[in-house]
Design brief:
By secondary structure, the chain is mostly beta strands. The chain is 10% helix and 35% strand. The longest helix is centred in the C-terminal third of the chain and has 22 residues.
């Protein structure tokens, strides 16, 4: 994992969204992607976080309070950290989450401590991170393509979308896509949009229908032990009180709001949530929350996938130097990137459009593949 992170060049991409009126009442969302090259950047080297998700044994009332017994017995995640990891200060306010599941839904409950709770956006599928928000990112099959993003604010206004692939690979956000039958609720310990008093926190509770994830090759029913990639993010703006309302603090040099804080469960190492390979892991347990503890079991196949991803990032760097992709490890090693040691005997096959690299564990029947789009998938050896 450390080698892969060192090779993540050109990762920070800001998806700036500009609204342009084309006709009365209609808007087109244009995504402008700006890459900032990062050469051999120093990043948080901690492995992705993991969480064992236990079963709910009773129907859950999605009310934003999570008072059912299985909720009270479910474990909290670690407190959120800055998206870049340990090299940044600890977040000003605490955020944590917990999860449950049953045959129909994946449940998420989060607690966001906040002395001044505010929200303005009320229209579904608007850009919710312009308010303070809570975000969920899910890649069930871990191939980094066709993954899901869900955002909500303290008004329970939602934005859900399907990403064809990361923005760095030319991915498109399908904003018309929706989590059918998703349920969500917000509870507030304090007052909303009243900066004259001090609030405690706001809580979100979400039920994601499992059938909505079939766009990502999910096989239902989910088998115990199955692992997905998932991460949570909290966007927090600096504000001040102005005539009874909260407004963003403006940078006098630019005339624009100060940059938002991004606090996450599993640090990304870069200011970009759209790096699914760095998200945390969730493991589905067949045990009911509070009845029996289960250990998270790291999947050894992830080591092969990490090496392939390291080669993918190395190929990006190689292409930027030579305007073609490398055809073997000898050419890759000319980059002199931290003297990587390739453990899984990767095989290169170049095509007119790009390349495909394969690798496998010695005793495994699974062959792992990656190509120039960054997608990782497996096949069985013959």
């Amino acid at each position: 994992m450390n080698m892969m992170k060192t090779l993540q060049t050109n990762l920070i991409r800001k998806n700036r969204i500009r609204k342009i009126k084309t006709a009365p009442g209609s808007l087109i969302l244009l995504y402008f992607l700006f890459a900032i090259p990062l050469l051999s950047q120093s990043q948080d080297t901690a492995l992705p976080k993991n969480y064992v998700c236990y079963r709910a044994n009773t129907p859950l009332s999605i009310d934003g309070f999570a008072t059912e017994s299985c909720w009270t017995k479910a474990e909290w995640t670690a407190d959120f950290a800055d998206i870049e990891g340990d090299k940044k200060p600890i977040p000003r306010f605490r955020t944590r989450a917990k999860m449950l599941w049953d045959n129909d839904n994946l449940y998420v409950f989060a607690e966001l401590y906040e002395p001044n709770i505010w929200a303005n956006l009320k229209q579904r599928d608007t850009v919710i991170f312009y308010d303070n928000d809570f975000e969920v990112f899910i890649d069930p099959d871990g191939d980094t393509h066709r993954y899901y993003e869900y955002e909500m604010n303290a008004l329970n206004t939602q934005w859900d979308l399907l990403l064809t692939k990361p923005y760095r690979d030319g991915g498109l956000p399908l904003t018309s896509w929706n989590f059918d039958a998703v349920r969500s609720a917000v509870s507030i310990a304090g007052t909303l949009n009243d900066p004259s008093d001090k609030d405690t926190c706001w809580r979100v509770e979400i039920a994601f229908p499992l059938k909505s994830f079939t766009d990502s090759s999910v096989v239902l029913p989910i088998k115990p032990g199955t692992q997905w990639r998932i991460n949570f993010s909290r966007v927090e703006w600096q504000t001040l009180a102005d005539n009874g309302r909260s407004i963003k603090v403006i940078n006098p040099q630019t005339g624009k709001p100060l940059p938002e804080d991004n606090w996450v469960w599993s640090p990304q190492g870069v200011i970009d949530m759209h790096c699914p390979e760095t998200w945390g892991f969730i493991q589905f347990s067949d045990h009911v929350a509070g009845t029996e503890r289960e250990k998270f079991r790291p999947n050894p196949e992830e080591k092969v996938k990490d090496e392939l991803r390291a080669l993918y990032f190395a190929q990006r760097t190689y292409y930027s130097h030579y305007k073609r992709f490398a055809t073997n490890l000898t050419e890759i090693n000319q980059l002199n990137i931290d003297n990587p040691k390739w453990k899984f005997n990767p095989l290169f096959q170049n095509t007119d459009k790009g390349y495909e690299i394969t690798a496998k564990q010695k005793q495994s029947q699974q062959i792992w593949h990656i190509n120039e789009t960054g997608r990782v998938w497996s096949s069985l050896s013959k």
